[in-house]
TrEMBL record:
Keyword Ligase: no
Keywords: Amino-acid biosynthesis, Aminotransferase, Branched-chain amino acid biosynthesis, Pyridoxal phosphate, Transferase
Molecular function (Gene Ontology), one example: branched-chain-amino-acid transaminase activity
Protein name: Branched-chain-amino-acid aminotransferase
Stored PROSITE patterns: AA_TRANSFER_CLASS_4
Length: 361
């Protein structure tokens, strides 16, 4: 498949330096967007075409656009960091590109070539480089590549045309308050995904389905929902937007990929990084009884969540309809903080990138 060349249409109204700096001083998460975006079209019989870097602007969609009705949509999330020398590098973009292809296959959408995905992200970062926060903190430029169906019609079928876009947003902490531990609600009423379903794909429907469970968690005074497997309602899978890790002394364990949870790139990186730091790391099955029992008997020393947006966030407490417990002393654990620092040091260019994860622009 050929890669279309990206044609540049620069914004005639970019934000001023002062306006941009004011946003970068306190970016929050996903609230502000850079001056440009990438758009690439796909049409049946023609493939990918009309790759453009255009001013960030609203889309004009027909009310009968298929995405609006049947949710044929996929997305990705990755970050670019400012390095000590002022240059910029993104974290494992080819892993996001490959997951985007897996999501596309599941949603019966066309696969964007890996090199086109990376080229599109690079082109946007390069043009809007001034939006990448300064080196020194944890801030980054969050990239959101996504694809929607653009065919118009109400018949349920794979669309015959699509639009791929990349937008970018400066990102500070996903959870305000730094590395404050989050509280977890174990949902009994709702599951996130089922075997054979779309749990492994990064598609909007999974997040829409999580909103009511998230509201239930909030009503119970919790920050996030941990989902259990749909069949036995017993095995811990993941949070709505993060994977989970269980720390047993010098071993970290994450739920195995069953098809109904997302193969997080942070999750995968930590399986490797933990070994570099002298820990054991593995994928396994952890039941809700294991979680409670091993916390009580002291063998489960820490639990944390991980993902691109949330980086690594400690779990401080857990609540379900019938039980409630504090995770160890409820404070961020030693292993959690060590892994968090090691990952961020690689991402921000402070530590050596032994795995070749950083993609320098
Ligand atoms: N699980 C879900 C449901 C997510 O949305 C995310 C975020 O992307 C993750 C896990 C973590 O994945 P990654 O580390 O690739 O960001
Ligand atoms: C990400 O971490 O990139 C995600 O997509 C998670 C989302 C809940 C913001």
């Amino acid at each position: 498949m050929t890669t279309p060349t990206i044609e540049l249409k620069p914004s005639s109204h970019p934000l001023s330096d002062a306006e941009r700096e004011a946003i970068l001083a306190n970016p929050g998460f996903g609230r502000h967007f850079t001056d440009h975006m990438v758009t690439i079209k796909w049409t049946e019989g023609r493939g990918w075409h009309d790759a453009q870097l255009v001013p960030y602007a609203p889309l004009s969609l027909d009310p009968a656009n298929m995405t609006l009705h049947y949710a044929q949509e996929i997305f990705e999330g990755l970050k670019a960091y400012r390095r000590p020398d002022g240059s910029v590098a993104s974290f494992r973009p080819e892993a996001n590109a490959e997951r985007f292809q897996r999501s596309a296959r599941r949603l019966a959408m066309p696969e964007l070539p890996v090199e086109t995905f990376i080229e599109a992200c690079d082109a946007l970062i390069q043009l809007d480089k001034a939006w990448v926060p300064a080196h020194g903190g944890e801030s980054s430029l969050y990239l959101r590549p996504f694809m929607i169906a653009t065919e118009v019609g109400l018949g349920v079928k794979p669309a015959n045309e699509y639009l791929f876009l990349v937008i970018a947003s400066p990102a500070g902490a996903y959870f305000p308050g730094g590395v404050k531990p989050v509280s977890i609600w174990l949902s009994e009423n709702y599951v996130r995904a089922v075997p054979g379903g779309i749990g492994f794909a990064k598609t909007g429907g999974n997040y829409a389905a999580s909103l009511l469970a998230q509201a239930e968690a909030a009503a119970k005074g919790c920050d996030q929902v941990a989902y259990l497997d749909a069949l036995e309602h017993k095995w811990v899978e993941e949070l709505g937007g993060m994977n989970l890790y269980f720390v047993y002394g010098d071993k970290i364990v994450t739920p195995e990929l069953t098809g109904s949870l997302l193969a997080g790139i942070t999750r995968d990186s930590l399986l490797k990084l933990a070994k570099d730091l002298g820990y054991k790391s593995e994928e396994g099955r952890i039941s809700i009884e294991d979680w409670k029992r091993d916390t009580e008997n002291g063998t489960l020393t820490e639990v944390f969540a991980c993902g691109t947006a949330a980086v690594i966030t400690p779990v401080g407490s857990v609540k379900s309809a019938g039980a409630e417990w504090t995770q160890a002393d409820g404070q961020p654990g030693k292993v959690t903080l060590e892994l968090r620092k090691a990952l961020l040091d690689i991402q921000t260019g402070v530590a050596e990138d032994v795995h070749g994860w950083m993609h320098q622009l």
